[in-house]
């Protein structure tokens, strides 16, 4: 199946690219961003320094360095501000721009974390619905050419996945 929702530490996944939920500086932070920088090693920060940051909803690509993944796609999710500040559209564009970069770099497998659903405070079930809908739209346009996983952290997140997408959640 081209899209699955799994419980995993995204830094361990053996895929062509993983997506990082970064901030607009692209210079590292907490959450999954911190975990990815720790696992990839110091060279990642050196490459990130050359990128000039990234706007919310955008995405930029780097090498994966010490990760099993060949590439890291850094995207900047919106901070949740109640839902009336274009958050849903910005979150959708994080997935769309990340998918486009993966496609342009010939990636056949890709893993996403649940962008914006941690420190940035996006309601988790809503964030998951946007992730699944946007990825499925991409897959149906591109003919299911990529294997994609959403890697969730922890049993609480998997419970939300089983409630909303029992057919996709492992
Ligand atoms: N693997 C998979 N998912 C993870 C991992 C991991 N190793 N670690 C955390 N998560 P967050 P955001 C989950 O806060 O909300 C950083 O400081 C986590 O449980 O990482 O987009 C950046 O620099 C949550 O469900 O990202 C920004 O400043 C999801 O990943 C800010 O946080 C996203 O949580 C971005 O906040």
Give a written overview of the molecule:
It is globular and about 40 Å long. The longest helix is centred in the last third of the chain and has 19 residues, at 124-142. Helix 3 packs parallel to helix 4 (124-142) and helix 4 crosses helix 5 (155-164). With 170 residues, it is an alpha/beta fold. Helices cover 38% and strands 19% of the residues. The model has no long low-confidence stretch (mean pLDDT 97). The protein has five helices and six strands. Bound molecules: ligand AR6. Ligand AR6 binds at residues 9-11, 21-23, 29-33, 35, 77, 113-120, 151, 153, 157. Ligand AR6 binds next to strand 2 and helix 1.
Series of secondary-structure elements, N-terminal to C-terminal: EEHHEEHEHEH
Biggest beta sheet attributes: 6 strands, mixed
Discrete helix count:
5
Beta fraction: 15-25%
Helix content: 25-40%
- Across the major sheet, the strand order is 1-6-5-2-4-3
Tally of extended strands? 6
Enumerate the distinct ligands.
Answer: ligand AR6
Shape, per Cα inertia axes: globular
Summarize this structure briefly.
The protein has helices spanning 31-40, 42-49, 87-104, 124-142, 155-164; strands at residues 3-7, 17-22, 59-63, 71-76, 109-112, 147-152. By secondary structure, the chain is an alpha/beta fold.
């Amino acid at each position: 199946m081209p899209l699955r929702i799994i419980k995993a530490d995204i830094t361990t996944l053996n895929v062509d690219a993983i997506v990082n939920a970064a901030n607009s500086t692209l210079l590292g932070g907490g959450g999954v961003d911190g975990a990815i920088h720790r696992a990839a090693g110091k060279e990642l920060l050196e490459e990130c320094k050359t990128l000039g940051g990234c706007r919310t909803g955008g995405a930029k690509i780097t090498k994966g360095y010490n990760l099993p993944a060949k590439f890291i796609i850094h995207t900047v999710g919106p901070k949740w501000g109640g839902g009336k500040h274009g958050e849903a559209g910005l979150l959708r564009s994080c997935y769309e721009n990340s998918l486009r970069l993966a496609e342009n770099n010939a990636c056949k497998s890709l893993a996403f974390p649940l962008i914006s659903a941690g420190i940035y405070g996006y309601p988790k079930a809503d964030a998951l619905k946007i992730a699944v809908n946007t990825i499925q739209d991409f897959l149906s346009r591109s003919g299911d050419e990529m294997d994609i996983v959403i890697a969730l952290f922890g049993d609480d997140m998997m419970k939300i996945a089983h409630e909303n997408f029992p057919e996709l959640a492992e």
